[in-house]
Amino acid sequence: MSLDFVYDNEYHVHIGRARKIRTSHPEVRALMGTNPATALWTLALVLLQWGVAYGMTQVSWVWVFVAAYLFGAFVNHALYALMHECAHNLVFRNPAYNKLLGIFGDLALFVPGAIGFRKYHLMHHQYLGLYDKDADIVSRTEARLIGNSTLRKALWVFLLGLSQALRPLRLKGVNFIDRWFVANVMAVIAIDILLLAVLGPKALAYIGLSTLFALGLHPVGGRWIQEHYTDGDGQETHSYYGPLNRLSFNIGYHTEHHDFASIPWNKLPKLKSLAPEYYDNLKSYRSWSSVLMRFISDRSMSTFNRILHEPHERAAPKTDARPSQDH
Question: In angstroms, what CA-CA distances link 69 with 53, 160, 291, 292?
Fold first, then answer.
């Protein structure tokens, strides 16, 4: 196992590919924009989770765990996919409305994340693969601690949500706390307290476990490995085209998304079909479970299996994500 990341001097292949696609397929611009229907999906999924949480008050603790793993995790993973749409301003044109919707989606996720995710995820797009600015990359200390041990990798995946929450702390000079962040935290804490007071501990546990499983050791957990971990294929980003995209709002179309972050989830498959010559020859996956199991069991893989770039003197260029800028 390497004790450092994989380095590549070719920075941000997504910019070059997006430029070529815009030239050869100018009609791609028609796919860019917003999808307000995402707000209805967010509302429906939050209400669904609250309804199931109410139902958990009538069952044993065993069924709370079973329901969270077999059902709740899929719903909360879908909510994270919709949070991702909000982060890129792909629901409404007004950034404030996207922030509010993201916070609302958080109300069924137990922990506040929408505003913090928005900030560091937009940086992830702008500075993809730059260690000091891309919060999606684990720290070298964390990577060495995990190593290539099957047990430690499995534990890391199980607690992936904690790792993701702490990563932004290593970014210097970035202020993640503002009034939106505070509002996000207060809103989620208030709802958690209300759920506990009105419905009891089983309801709140169902919500919390659904989030824990959605972010970790679960079939949808393979998504977090699929996106940017490499097995030596030289690709910085990979897509997933399996059936779980239907339950995850096409979040698996990750290469396409990094090429055109201004295209909403419902049109990403159209982008792939519009420009197959740019995507069909890239490595992709059909099973999140297989990706996850291989990462855990293969001792040649670790959290060091990511392509990084040496920092440039100038700021990293931005992706084609005009509606995705924060304001």
Answer: 13, 16, 19, 16
Token pair 């970035």 is found at 174
DSSP secondary structure, 186-250, as one string: HHHHHHHHHHHHHH-HHHHHHHHHHHHHHTSSSGGGHHHHHTTB-SSS--S--EE-SGGGGGTTT
Cα–Cα distance for residue pair 138/224, rounded to 1 Å: 12
Distance CA 236, CA 304 (A): 13
Q: What is the pTM of this model?
A: 0.93
Residue 308 phi, psi dihedral angles, 5° rounding: -115, 165
Provide the β-strand partners of residue 308: 7
pLDDT tens series, the chain, 327 aa: 567 898 887 777 999 999 999 999 999 999 999 999 999 999 999 999 999 999 999 999 999 999 999 999 999 999 999 999 999 999 999 999 999 999 999 999 999 999 999 999 999 999 999 999 999 999 999 999 999 999 999 999 999 999 998 888 888 888 878 999 999 999 999 999 999 999 999 999 999 999 999 999 999 999 999 999 998 888 999 999 999 999 999 999 999 999 999 999 999 999 999 999 999 999 999 999 999 999 999 999 999 999 998 765 433 444 444 444 443
